[in-house]
Specification:
The strands form two sheets. Strands 5, 6, 7, 8 and 9 form a five-stranded antiparallel sheet that branches. The chain has three domains: 8-135, Alpha-Beta Plaits, CATH 3.30.70.1050; 178-272, Chitinase A, domain 3, CATH 3.10.50; 287-450, Trigger factor, domain 2, CATH 1.10.3120. It has helices at 44-59, 74-80, 83-105, 144-149, 162-175, 224-228, 278-282, 290-323, 331-351, 356-363, 367-394, 401-412, 418-424, 427-450, and strands spanning 24-31, 35-42, 110-120, 127-135, 178-181, 191-200, 203-216, 238-244, 258-272. By secondary structure, the chain is α+β, with helices and mostly antiparallel strands. It is extended. It is 46% helix and 19% strand.
């Protein structure tokens, strides 16, 4: 029972209670870093009802010959259950009732899970326990109206260069390219499949072996010196060479080191791009000719640039407001944000076919070291989120129920079935997240209107 935690979701689902009729003492103490400590003392008489409930619940778990499961009389159950078990269960029931009700009654903006410590527990005695919890900090906003008005927009005439359109068209061609094996030396632009080993002082480097590894020469996925050594080789040929890794290479164990490679070419394939004509364009979808595709590409690039400008303005405004706002940020929110960042990072690595353990090994860092590196960024994210929330409250900005439902529905479309969504998503968590996203969007729209 010691160190038990209450689920934060119950805080706001319980009714308001008047504690005047309860013989219970509550003492609230403010702590640094936006935390509070609440001490509770509930007298023995008030605990009597919880002891009865505790005995009834524990009795349901007993298996005694002659009685059906859950049907053991309380008098018999009491002789089979240790008194301390009853006291601990009674304390658990009391805490789950009175802690959330105290939070509501005293209007405490608690966040996260509380740390519960039982200080006194014994039969026919008062229950004394302590709850430590983070609370939303008090935020004194600067003149965010003036700050937003001081931000300058870039010129409205956003243009798209012909080279940008051509680059996108070339990417479309590459995405639909055909590969043809050739019996000639590899040249830039070819796809080669290789076996390779990498060693430093004859010792195999971590993740330094691969079989049938695809490399597009000139694509820049490998170091330029590595790709350069593959040009001119034919299928079946082998080569040994050494390259010096850059001093700022992301894998610290390899940075600035000379690595000896042994490579074998298993296949050389020419990448044949489809001809960029009307027939190719029609196979892409709704386009009738090259002109219509180019127009669509141009519009897409322009919209992307417009969105980047909008994001730049939003970031500049909120960073300027954050720089002039000072308040204590609860550590629990920072820790939660770091965990969120870690989950996002793992998903990103997974999408690239990598895993976190291999990535960390390459960096020569532990998971805890990465989290420590991210702490300042996490603190900044939390600070901005709290500021947006505060502005939303000041201006009474709330998304409409219809907006919330529509956005939730769009998110749930990502799951193959309602059953899959049910396994991975808590409806209340999704609702709260969606409300926050929509509220922040409306706050940003308000700030954007103030920009000169």
């Amino acid at each position: 029972m010691l160190g038990a935690q209450c689920d934060s979701k119950v805080y706001f689902a319980l009714r308001l209670v008047n504690f005047n009729h309860i013989d219970m003492k509550i003492d609230i103490k403010n702590l640094p870093q936006s935390e509070i400590e609440i001490n509770f003392e509930l007298n023995s008489e008030e605990m009597a009802s919880f002891r009865q409930k505790a005995l009834a619940e524990l009795a349901k778990l007993l298996k005694i010959d002659g009685f059906r499961p859950g049907q053991v009389p309380a008098e018999i159950a009491k002789t089979k259950i240790q008194p301390i078990e009853i006291e601990e269960k009674a304390a658990e029931l009391a805490i789950h009732k009175y802690y959330p009700e105290a939070i509501l009654e005293k209007n405490i903006p608690a966040i996260g899970r509380p740390q519960i410590e039982i200080l006194k527990i014994a039969p026919d005695n008062p229950l004394v326990f302590r709850a430590k919890t983070a609370i939303l900090p008090k935020i004194s906003l600067p003149d965010w109206n003036s700050i937003a008005k001081s931000i300058k927009k870039q010129p409205e005439n956003i243009t798209v260069k012909s080279e940008e359109i051509e680059k996108t068209l070339h990417w479309l061609q590459k995405s639909r390219a055909q590969h043809q094996k050739v019996d000639r030396p590899a040249i830039k632009g070819d796809l080669v499949e290789i076996d390779f080993e990498g060693r430093i002082d004859k010792i195999l480097i971590e993740n330094g072996v691969s079989k049938n590894h695809p490399v597009v020469l000139g694509d820049g996925k490998f170091l330029p010196e590595f790709e350069k050594n593959l040009i001119g080789l034919k299928t079946g040929e082998e080569k040994e060479f050494s390259i010096t890794f850059p001093k700022d290479y992301h894998q610290k164990k390899l940075a600035g080191k000379i690595v000896d490679f042994k490579v074998k070419i298993n296949a050389v394939e020419e990448i044949i791009l489809p001809e960029l004509n009307d027939e190719f364009v029609k196979n892409l979808g709704k386009f009738s000719d090259i002109a219509s595709l180019k127009k669509s590409v141009e519009e897409g690039i322009k919209q992307e640039k417009e969105q980047k400008e909008k994001d730049r303005i939003r970031l500049e405004i909120i960073n300027a407001v954050a720089d002039k706002t000072d308040f204590e940020i609860p550590e629990t929110l920072i820790e939660n944000e770091i965990e969120k960042m870690m989950a996002e990072f793992q998903t990103s690595l997974s999408n690239m076919g990598l895993n976190l353990e291999d990535y960390l090994a390459g960096l020569g860092k532990t998971k805890e070291e990465i989290k420590k590196d991210w702490k300042k960024e996490a603190e900044k994210r939390v600070k901005i989120a709290l500021i947006l929330r505060e502005i939303g409250q000041v201006k009474n900005i709330q998304p409409e129920e219809k907006e919330i439902e529509e956005r939730m529905h769009e998110y749930l479309k990502n799951f193959s079935s309602p059953q899959q969504a049910q396994k991975k998503i808590d409806p209340q968590d999704l609702r709260e997240y969606t409300m926050g996203v929509l509220r922040n969007e409306k706050v940003f729209q308000l700030l954007e209107k103030l920009v000169d």
